[in-house]
Amino acid sequence: MTLEYLEATFYTQALDGSGTTGVPSSSATFNRGAVTGADVFGGFGGRIRSGAYDLLTTIRDHEVEHVEFLRAALGASAVGPCTFNFSAALGSVDAFISTAQGSRTPA
Questions:
Q1: How many CB atoms lie within 10 A of CB 18?
Q2: What are the backbone angles phi and psi of residue 55, rounded to the nearest 5°?
Q3: Nearest to 9 by CA among 95, 100, 75, 74
Q4: Structural domain of 68
Q5: Is residue 84, in this structure, part of any structural domain at all?
Q6: Which residues pair with 23 in a beta bridge?
């Protein structure tokens, strides 16, 4: 459950989200333009570059759904949300994507 909170909160803080039980809403760190214009997508064609934001928000939405599902399934046994500090991972789109991929954050 804690892993699902971590993933949902990470994407919500990066890309905005309306919030859900246990995953606080957040103003976006990165908007569509920041994501599609990022260097990390520079080697990809226009279709991937232009669709990157939509793909990432789909991942965000799935992670939020995982939290909602587990909270409903576990009921009173569900653990509460944690506080996470993603400041290093949200310093740039490149750092965000690197962290999302499980890679080391670029210097």
A1: 9
A2: -65, -40
A3: 100
A4: 2-100
A5: yes
A6: 20
Distance from the Cα of residue 16 to its chain's centroid: 8
With tokens 């962290």, the residue in question is 99
Taking the alpha carbons at both ends of the chain, their separation in whole angstroms is 31
At 58-78, the pLDDT tens digits run 999 999 999 999 999 999 999
Instruction: With respect to residue 107, please indicate whether it lies within any of the assigned structural domains.
Output: no
Q: Is 7 within a domain?
A: yes
CA distance 32 to 20: 22
3-state secondary structure of 17: strand
Work out how many domains the chain is built from and give that number. Answer: 1
58/100 Cα distance (integer angstroms): 13
- Model's pTM, two decimal places? 0.85
Asked whether residue 46 is domain-assigned, the answer is yes
Q: For 2-104, list the strands marked E by DSSP.
A: none
Joined tokens for residue 19: 């919030």
pLDDT tens-digit map of 11-41: 988 987 665 556 766 667 899 999 999 999 8
